[in-house]
Amino acid sequence: xxxxxxxxxxxxxxxxxxxxxxxxxxxxxxxxxxxxxxxxxxxxxxxxxxxxxxxxxxxxxxxxxxxxxxxxxxxxxxxxxxxxxxxxxxxxxxxxxxxxxxxxxxxxxxxxxxxxxxxxxxxxxxxxxxxxxxxxxxxxxxxxxxxxxxxxxxxxxxxxxxxxxxxxxxxxxxxxxxxxxxxxxxxxxxxxxxxxxxxxxxxxxxxxxxxxxxxxxxxxxxxxxxxxxxxxxxxxxxxxxxxxxxxxxxxxxxxxxxxxxxxxxxxxxxxxxxxxxxxxxxxxxxxxxxxxxxxxxxxxxxxxxxxxxxxxxxxxxxxxxxxxxxxxxxxxxxxxxxxxxxxxxxxxxxxxxxxxxxxxxxxxxxxxxxxxxxxxxxxxxxxxxxxxxxxxxxxxxxxxxxxxxxxxxxxxxxxxxxxxxxxxxxxxxxxxxxxxxxxxxxxxxxxxxxxxxxxxxxxxxxxxxxxxxxxxxx
Length: 474
Hints:
The protein is α+β, with helices and mostly antiparallel strands. It is built from 18 helices and 17 strands. Helix content is 38%, strand content 18%. α4 packs across α6, α4 crosses α16 (390-414) and α9 packs across α10. It starts with 5 loop residues before the first helix and ends in a 6-residue tail after the last helix.
């Protein structure tokens, strides 16, 4: 029981009485789980085949005769666990005893009674040390390696994510907007390639993310002693190629903040038929271009007492770094605190979209990606980079992104049109995934009895029906 004796688990907890009645409690209930809502994750995953596809991105050099946990089962245990709130591998030394979790990941012996080693019996799921091999295996590992033999292929993972996104469309979309954004992952140990970042004021990594709407497409872990746009072209190129192959007539727009306003990235977009929309840091020359409109906005503010803004589109070129003039849109805004000039640069022509619409509706929508990154980091533990090796932390980042993709699929396919259709992962976990469940196992069936007091049971049942409709019955 990993440090807890049976006597300790059955010891009564010190609780206050209720009137004339004693209130007794201990940990002797047996096959009871708090993760009954994980059935949604399991059913949707089986319907869409997500973890099976992801498993193909790993090369397993282990001896098949000795396998007790397949890569698919290990990925399910790790990805479902993140969605259910289990951020640390250490949790699985106890969670391995949960027959419901073992059922979710596809173990035909959920109680682990047939395990090869007697010390493992009673654990249907993989232990922390076994799951850790997904992350810590070196890129050059082989069948001759002693322990860690499951090699992750990041390019293959990216291909699975993009193909999963493509498969959701019944017809080619007219436009796809791809959002780029970096963020920091704070480090507290002596991890490989750790550096101090002045802006964030701590040691960190600086991963770069690529999303389309709420769907994650790719991520690349980077050290923090680099320019924020470094590696953007390498991240974009294979994704755009895969999307263009599926949607040859679709318009693609890459969107990002001023950190991506770089000649290399803009030139690549222009050479590959991809439009871009980036912020651009203001300077004296740019502000001079909208000076008349700034004065006009100030006069309107003085007259009305309300924020005033005007827009202007013009051609602009840097003195040295750009290869050509490009379209810039300036926002001349006056607020109670004073002037607030902002600028964006784009390859979209003025005849296609005017400056006001370009800035307010197309560029400002970029802020939604920041919510997606927060969800990935805060709700699904994408900011956990406690491994010493850089590569291991990169795998962890992808696993958190996979958990987010599964949560996005729950919203997209099971909860569309419901009160939880736009709920964050943390809200879904509390309201939909964390359901008390009593598990009864016999020779012929596994009976999971969910809490009768669960308030969203009608919505849960409807979500299961929607998922079952995605695939033919077994």
